Amino acid sequence: METMSLLMNGFAVALTPESIMFAVIGAILGTLIGALPGLGPANGVAILIPLAFSLGLSPTSSLILLTSVYAGAMYGGRISSILLNIPGDEPAMMTCLDGYPMALKGKAAEALAISAIASFIGSFIATIGLVILAPILSKFALKFGPSEYFALFVLAFATLGGVTGKNQVKTVMAAAIGLMISTVGIDISTGVQRYTFNMLELFEGVDFIIAIVGLFAISELFFFLERHAGDGLKQVAINKLKLTARDILNVLPTSIRGGILGFIAGVLPGAGASLGSFISYSLEKKISDKGEFGKGDPRGVAAPESGNNGAASGALVPMLTLGVPGSGTTAVLLAMLISLNISPGPMLFTQNPDLVWGVIAAMFVGNFVLLLLNIPMVGIFVKLLSVPPKYLMPVVTLIASVGIYSVSHSPTDLYFMVAFGVLGYILRKVDIPLVPVILGLLLGPEMEKSLRHALVLSDGDWSVLFNSGLSIGLWTVAILGLVLPLIVGPIVRSKMRKSKDSVQDD
Amino acid sequence: MLTKMSLKTVLLSSVVALSAVSQAQAFEPNRSVDCIAPAAPGGGWDFTCRSVGKVLVDQDYIKGNVQTINMGGAGGGVAFAHTVSKRATDDNLIVAASTATTTRLAQGQFPGMHTDQVRWVATLGADYGVIAVGKDSKYTSLTQMMNALKKDPSAVKFAGGSASGGWDHLKVLMTAKEAHVGNLPKIRYLAFSGGSEALVQVVGGHIDAFTGDISEVKGFMESGDLRVLAVLSEKRLPAPFDKIPTALEQGISSVAPNWRGFYVPGNASKASYDWWVNTMNELYATPEWKGVMAKNGLMPFHKSGEELTKFVNNQTLDIKILSKDIGLIK
Q1: Of A236-240, B59-63, B293-297, which has the strongest mean pLDDT?
Q2: pLDDT score of B196 more than 50
Q3: In Å, how far are B128, B178, B275 from B28, measured between CA atoms?
Q4: Fewer CB within 10 Å of terminal CB in chain A, N or C?
Q5: Which DSSP category does B90 fall into?
C-alpha cells in the first residue's frame, strides 16, 4: 500500500508537462535510434547523455528522458528487423525470424502493429514487476556489507559474457581493459595517485561519460566514415494495416509469457535483453503444437518483442536498488546517475523517492506514448529509416562534442573522447565487445573498494568474503554464471544460428 | 528615462567614491560575471554558485546574470590552476570553495599551488561535522567511544564519504587528537564515494561508526536508525538538531565546520576585492539568503576578508600538521 501511494506521487511528477515533454522526446528519439541499424540502446543513451547535461536538465528530467530513449530503442529495434531483415539492435535479432517473412507476405503493417502491442505488454508487465520487486530488494539491500557487495560485483563480472556472448576470452579481455582504465586517478582508500603523471586532469580518473560517448558514439562515426555510407537502405514496402481484435487476442498469451520471462532475464545481472527475447521465442516455439514459426507466425513476432522490452525494464531493478547494472544500457544510465551525484542503491528509494517513483511512473507514461507513436505513426519512423546517414552522423558527433565540452569546459576531455573513439573503433574491429569495458571502468573501483573494506573490517582475514549466507549464495550464482555459459552457450547459440539460417534459406 | 538612470548612477557612485576615500576608484562589476563551480553539475560547489548567483541577481548586485561554469577535475585543482594561470587579474570572477579546497591545498594535492595565490572573499554558511553510530551500537556518548579508542585505536571502525585523508577522515582524527588518543594512524577509516553509501553501511550494522556532515544524517536520525553522538560545532545547532550534544560539552574541543564560500583571482584589483567582500557581507544578511540556508540545511558561519584569509591559513596549517602526524604527507 505504501508502494501505491509512492507510485501515485510518482505519477504527480511524471504527469507534469515538463516530464511528459521529455518522455515524448525520449520516446521519439529512442525509437529512431533503435530503428537505425547499428545504433543500439546503449549507443543511443550514450549519445544523449551529453545533451541532457548541456541542456542543464534536473536529474529527474534527465533520467525520464534517458529511460524513455532506452524504452524507445527497444521498440524501434523491431522496425528494421521486420522491414530490412537487419536487427536495429542486438535484442531485436529474434524478431527478424518471423517479422521479415511476414513482411515478405505483404503483412509488414500487421507485423509492426503486433510487435508494438507485444512490446507494450512486455514493458507494462515488467514495469509492474519493477514496482513490486524494487522496494523489496532495496530494503534487503541493507544486508549488503562490503563482503556481500564484493561477491555481487564478482557475480556481475562472471555473468558478463552471458549465454548469448560470442567469445568468453574477448569478454574477459574487454573487462580487463575497463578495469585497467579504472585504476587511473587518486585512490580513494589510500589517497595515493595512480597513473596520473601529475596531470591535474587525471587526478579524478577517467570520466566514464567521456569514455562511453567516445567508445560508442565516436566509434560509430568512424564506422560510418569507413563504409562511405551515404545512402539509405532498401526496404520492404508497407501495406495498409488490417488488424482485427482476434489477431491481438491470439498473441496476448504469448506476449504476457514473454514479458514475464523477459523481466526475469533482465533482473539477472549480465543476462540482458538478448537472452530475454531468445528464451521467450524458444518457449513459444516449444509450447505451440501447430503454427509456422520461422515462416511469419505473428506469435514469433510477439514473443521476442515482449521478451526484450520486459528485460529492458527488468534490468533497471538491480541498477536502481543495488547500483549494479543488469545490462549494457543500464550501465550507461548508472554512469549518468553517478555523474549527477545521485548514488543508486537502497538510499535512492528513501532519499530521492520523487526521482525513483517519478521515473517509474514516467515509464508507464512513456510506454503509452510509445504505443501511440508506434501504431498510427509508424510510417514516419519508416520514412526516417531512409534518411541517409551522411546527414545523421554529423549531428550525432556535434551533440556528443558540445555535450562533453559543456560538462567540464575542458578541451582535454574532448581529446579523451576522440581517443576513446579510436579505441572503440579498434576494439570493435577485432570483435571485442564494448559493454564489458564500460562495466569494468564503472564497477572496478567499487569492487576494489568493497574488497579493501571487507579486509579492513576483518583485519586482513580473507575468509570474511564467505562468512554470510548471502555472500555464499552470491558466490554460488557467480560460479554457475561463469561455468554454465561454457556448457549451455554453444548449444543455445547454434540453435539461434540455425533458426536464423533457416529463415534466410527460405 | 535612460539619462535619469545614468545621472542617478553617477551621483550614487560619486557618493560612494567620496565616502570611501581609501579606494582609488569605485568598482562596478560587469553586467555579467562568472562563477566557477569546480565540479560537475549537481554537487555542493555547483549549488554554491547557482544559489549565490541567483541571490546576487535578485538583490540587484549584478545587473545582468551570474554565469555558472562547471569546471571539474582534481577535486577543484583544475579550476584553481585555471584561476591562477589564466584569469589571475579577472575582476569579474568568483570561484566556489569549501573545506575540501583547503584540505587539498594543505596536503599538496594541487601540485605547486598554495592558499596565497588567490584571495579569499567570504564564507556564507557551513555544514557541521557529526560522529554517529547505528541504533544498536554499544556507544552512547563520544567520550565513551574515545575512551575505547584510547585502549585500542582500531576498536572502532569509521565510515565516511570522503577519500582517505579527506575532510570526513580528518574530523575523526582531529577529535581523537583532542581526546588524547595515541597512535592516530592506527584508527581505521573506510572511504566511500559518498556520505549516503557510508551511512547505509553503518545503519546496516556492517561498520561501527559514521563520520560526516549534519545535513547527511537527518533522514536516518529522524527514523531512529542512527544515534548521533556529537556534533562538531561551537554551540548546539538550531532545531531539529538541538538535542544533539556538541563535542565541547563532552570535554573534547573539536569543531569542524565544512564551510562554503568563494575566492577570487590573486591579482584582481583591490577595489573589486573590497566590492566582493562587502557584497557577500550584505548578501549574507539578506532574508533571501537566510531562506536559502534554511531550505538547504546550511548553518550560520560567516567570515570574510582578512578574517577569512587568516582562518583559511590556520585551517590549512592545522590540516598539514595532522596529515603529517598520520603519515599521509611527508
Answers
A1: B59-63
A2: yes
A3: 35, 46, 8
A4: N
A5: -
Binary contact (A201, B192; C-beta < 8 A):
no
The C-alpha of A193 sits at a distance from chain B's nearest C-alpha, in angstroms, of: 9
Percent of chain B with pLDDT over 90: 58
pLDDT at A489: 66
- For B160, phi then psi, to 5°, come to -150, 165
- Asked if B153 is an interface residue toward chain A (Cβ–Cβ < 8 A), one would say no
Among chain A residues, CA nearest to B155: A457
Any idea where the domains of chain A sit in the sequence? 2-140+149-228+236-505
Count of CB atoms situated within 10 Å of the CB of A88: 32
Q: Residue A382 is which amino acid? A: V
Other C-beta atoms lying within 10 Å of the C-beta of residue A361: 25
Q: Which residues contact A279 (CB under 8 A, 6 or more apart)?
A: A261, A265, A307
pLDDT at B17 (0 to 100):
46
Question: pLDDT tens digits, residue range B87-103?
Answer: 989 999 999 999 999 99
Query: So what's the pLDDT on residue A86?
Result: 74
Neighbours of B40 (CB within 10 A): 22
Q: What is the CATH number of domain B127-257?
A: 3.40.190.10
Contacts of A457 in chain B (CB under 8 A): 157, 190, 206-207
Q: Residues of chain A whose C-beta is under 8 A from some C-beta in B?
A: 53, 56, 59, 141-146, 186-191, 198, 200-201, 203-204, 207, 339-343, 345-347, 350-351, 407-410, 445-446, 449, 452-453, 456-457, 459
On whether the pTM is more than 0.90, the answer is no
Q: What is the pLDDT of residue A221?
A: 83
Q: Searching chain A, which residue's CA lies closest to the CA of residue B80?
A: A200
Of A53, A145, A201, nearest to B41 by CB-CB distance is A53
Most A CBs within 10 Å, among B186, B201, B223, to test the A interface: B201
Buried b (16+ CB within 10 A) or exposed e, B260-274: bbbbbbeebbebbbb
Question: Could you give the CA distance from residue B237 to residue A192 in angstroms, rounded to a whole number?
Answer: 36
Full DSSP string of A322-383: HS--SSHHHHHHHHHHHHTT---SHHHHHH-HHHHHHHHHHHHHHHHHHHHHHTTTHHHHHH
- What's the half-sphere exposure (Cβ side, CA atoms, 13 Å) at A458? 17
- DSSP 8-class letter at A216: I
> What top-level class would CATH report for the domain B29-126+259-325?
alpha beta
* CA-based nearest distance A173→chain B, Å: 27
Q: What is the mean pLDDT of residues A450-459?
A: 92
Q: Compute how many other C-beta atoms are within 10 angstroms of the C-beta atom of residue A498.
A: 11
Residue of B nearest to A408 (CA): B71
Question: ipTM of the predicted structure?
Answer: 0.77
B232: Cα separation from own chain's centroid? 14
Tell me the pLDDT tens digit for each residue of B305-327.
999 999 999 999 999 998 988 87
Check: CB of residue A406 under 8 Å from CB of residue A49. Answer: no
Kindly report, residue by residue over A483-492, the tens digit of the pLDDT: 777 777 677 6
Of B42, B71, B163, the CB nearest to A59: B42
Average pLDDT score, chain A: 82
A420 touches A210 (CB < 8 A): yes
